[in-house]
Each structure stands twice: as structure tokens, then as C-alpha cells.
Design brief:
By secondary structure, the chain is of the alpha/beta class. The chain has nine helices and nine strands. Helix 4 links the parallel strand 3 and strand 4.
Length: 252
């Protein structure tokens, strides 16, 4: 039997889930898109079907870039991407359930491969937490790329679409990167200056897709994989510097 409030508003549990995890996030993301006066270019570089790895720089510590990129790819490219994110999202059921409903997947090699083999688009940050949690004093300096995204591309023969994001560095200021060596060895967390996002202007540029001219067995060539990752990092760093020279003051 329906509860009275369900009868009045015509809502069931499924509808509430849709409201909480789909409608409200999209509404809030559209507000953020206007708040950041977001400019987007190169969206046509995302293939409209088939497996693809969308590889952005990572910054701002808050994860806004992950939320907004997933939203933009869905709205502009009409793809529903799997966003590979930090394992902290999946430590408890409280955070894991909404994360899954918003298209987040734990950033593991296996999860990336499985999504690509099903023909999905994935968003993967090659810098990982080292990019996201770097201090603002190092803003727009790409940290060393992990090589997993290159191996995924080789194994599944998927194109890579590099993406440069400007604005997240100024939206959330990170004073320092804290590294735990005793109780949580290897864990890195930020020391933020602000929680409320500053109104920096964002610009997101999708670069041309990269089709690697190698067969899947090249995944075992560590030297080649390292070279490809470095080349893509250099290409993205150059694009970031080009965009920085054009944008001027990020708050005007």
C-alpha cells in the first residue's frame, strides 16, 4: 500500500532515487556551469559511440572537475561516461551508493578495462591524486602520469581524448599536500584554504583523439608505454600553457 505522501505527490522509492541522484545533481551542475561561466571547445572530438578514454588534467582537490566533466560529456556529447574516481568514495556504503548512481566507478585497471570492453566512454585522470591534491603553488604543472590509461587503450584498442581544464586550480585553493607514512602509508590528502568554491572562470578544451598505432600485445612493452604517457603529458602541458596565455585574469 502506498504511503499517504506517496499518493499525494505521486512518488515511489524509485522516483525519489531519480530525484536525489539524477534530477538534483543535474540541476546543481547546471548552476555550477553558469557560476563558473564555463567555456567548452572541442566536444566534437569525443566519438559518439564505441569505447574511448577521456583523459583530463586533475586539480582543485574537491572533485568538481570529475562531476562537471561527466555532466558535460553527457549533455554535450550525448554519452554516459563511467568516471573512474578515488577509492575514498567507495569506503562506506553511505558514499558508495550515491557515487555509483552518479556514474562513478572505483579507479582500478580492471574496472576501466571492463567498461571499455562494453563500448563505454570512461573519464580517467592520469595524474591521480598527485594532480588533484597538489598545492596551488604548483598549479597547472602536470604531475607524472600513471601509465594505466595507456595500457587500457592498447589492450582494448580504444582512442584517447586528452582534455585540459582551466579554472579548477583557482576555484579551490590547496595550501599543502599531506602525506601519511605511518598509519595510512601512501595516503595523500589536501590542506584546503577554502571549501566554498571561488567564482573562477572555467575553460575546458577537448583535444583531438589519439589512436595508438600498436597491437594489444604492446601493453607488455613498458618502455613504449612510458614513452606514450610522457608524449601525451607533454601535449597536454603545451595545450594548458596555450590556454593560460589567452585567458587573462580567471576572475574577470
Amino acid at each position: 500500500m502506498q504511503k499517504p505522501n506517496e499518493k499525494i505527490f505521486g512518488l515511489r522509492n524509485l522516483d525519489r532515487d531519480t530525484l536525489i541522484f539524477r534530477v538534483l545533481p543535474r540541476f546543481l551542475l547546471e548552476i555550477l556551469r553558469k557560476y563558473f561561466r564555463m567555456e567548452i571547445s572541442g566536444i566534437e572530438n569525443i566519438p559518439r559511440k564505441g569505447a574511448v578514454i577521456i583523459a583530463p588534467n586533475h586539480s582543485g582537490f574537491s572533485g568538481f572537475d570529475a562531476f562537471l566533466l561527466g555532466h558535460i560529456v553527457q549533455q554535450e556529447a550525448k554519452r554516459v561516461p563511467r568516471v573512474l574516481t578515488h577509492h575514498f568514495w567507495f569506503l562506506t556504503e553511505t558514499t558508495a551508493i550515491p557515487a555509483h548512481k552518479m556514474g562513478f566507478t572505483e579507479a582500478t585497471y580492471e574496472n576501466g578495462i571492463n567498461a571499455l570492453k562494453k563500448g563505454n566512454a570512461i573519464v580517467l585522470f592520469p595524474e591521480g591524486e598527485q594532480g588533484n591534491f597538489k598545492p596551488t603553488s604548483k598549479r597547472y604543472q602536470l604531475q607524472e602520469f600513471k601509465r594505466g590509461f595507456v595500457r587500457m587503450a592498447l589492450e582494448t584498442q580504444s582512442p584517447i581524448v586528452p582534455v585540459v581544464v582551466l579554472g579548477a586550480e583557482e576555484t579551490h585553493i590547496n595550501l599543502k599536500q599531506l602525506k601519511f607514512t605511518k598509519f595510512l602509508k601512501g595516503t595523500v590528502i589536501p590542506l584546503p584554504l577554502n571549501i566554498i568554491p571561488l567564482p573562477a572562470k572555467w575553460r575546458i578544451r577537448f583535444l583531438e583523439p589519439i589512436h595508438l598505432p600498436y597491437k594489444p600485445n604492446a601493453v607488455n612493452d613498458s618502455e613504449l608505454v612510458h614513452e606514450i604517457a610522457e608524449n601525451i603529458q607533454d601535449k597536454m602541458q603545451q595545450a594548458i600553457e596555450e590556454e593560460l596565455t589567452k585567458r587573462g585574469n580567471p576572475f574577470l
